[in-house]
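Protocol step 4 of 5: obtain the predicted structure for the target chain.
Materials: sequence only (see below). No template structures provided, no constraints applied. The aim of this step is simply to have a reference model before the mutagenesis design in step 5. Sequence pasted as it appears in the construct record:
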Amino acid sequence: MSTTTTLTQEECLTHLASIAGKEHTQLCGETVAIAAADAQQIAEILRFADANSIAVTAVGGGTKLGWGNPVEAGIRLDLKRMNTLREHPWQDMTCTVEAGCNWAEMQKELAQNRQSVALDPLWPELATVGGVVAANDGGSLRLKYGGLRDLIIGMTIVLADGTVAKTGGKVVKNVAGYDLHKLMTGSFGTLGVITEVNFRLHPMEVHARTWTATATDAARFAEPLRGLLDSQMTPSAVQVRVREQECALDVRIAALPECMDDHAGRLQKLFGQIELSEASENVWQARQELFATDGAVVLKVSLLPSDVCPVTAELQQWAAREGAEISIVAQAPGLMTVALKSSPDAAIALIKHLRGRLHVSGGSVVAQQFPEALRNGLDVWGCDSNALPLMREIKRRFDPRRILNPGRFVGNI
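Step 4 output (structure tokens):
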């Protein structure tokens, strides 16, 4: 454990045990693991860590700990005891949930009133609310319901100096205070520890069907996809899937049962000669399955919606030319997950090429998973934005001693 004082590991363990209890504090190698019961205990822990310059990393389900740069923390703050859906005023279509609550369990409780948080993150059976929010994870439902920042209306945060701050509120129409919860979403735990989140809810999609169009070239989907998004139809989700030279475009529509045949006919008209058939809901697990590809580099690519099909087709051609294996799941709003199996040099060259290709339009390429052999030669974030100085200043203001996940985020923030 690295500190700027003469504090020993045993003294640190003893002090933390006095906060959360001996049964919730243990030594794990060079790290002290502590499970806090509430925001006040977290505040005490962070005050202690800040005073002694001890790095802290907050952990939920641990599903995304590998994302970003590695962190060597002296304190591992486990949120598993903070796992309750605290409020669910279903008439207002909002809820307040603790950060350590399992995502699937939260959705199960909300479903009792046929409501849900309209987001489909990775590994929902393992991931926690705080982890999903800190990593700004979300899937194909973004097309209809917006991203995670659109679904959060308030939050409780503990800052590095132990200050407990509340942002936003518990109702959808709220203009009180600054939108700090938008800043915290996707900050990877570098600005504060999220303890509670207030969500706006949507009715569950009770009746939904999925159709899949198939082709050999992703470029063939460009015109039908543009027509679909410009039409009066409101699909819940649209994604393009590529595995080797096989391409598919999935469309999910929720509507009254008696309207489904009409939607099928309109889709067939949009896709013309491209084969279209009804598909299983399992196709929406494709993004998650990419992370199970052994030895693959998994990239998160953000790009313009109009670039989804052209870039997908380019990646197909590159893989065929280089003899590499590539699988892609691209969401219509402009987020793409790419699993690549190739030589290390080829993978790094492709990442550099993609970053240069997308930089002009404001896109980005982030390496979320990769073999350890690439660790030293790969820039995980690849950020050269002119916003980086501002981001560093925000980090300095919120966490001047750099105790919260130091170095994990863009620019080693």
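Step 4 remarks: The chain is about 30% helix and 25% strand. The longest strand covers residues 246-254.
Proceed to step 5.
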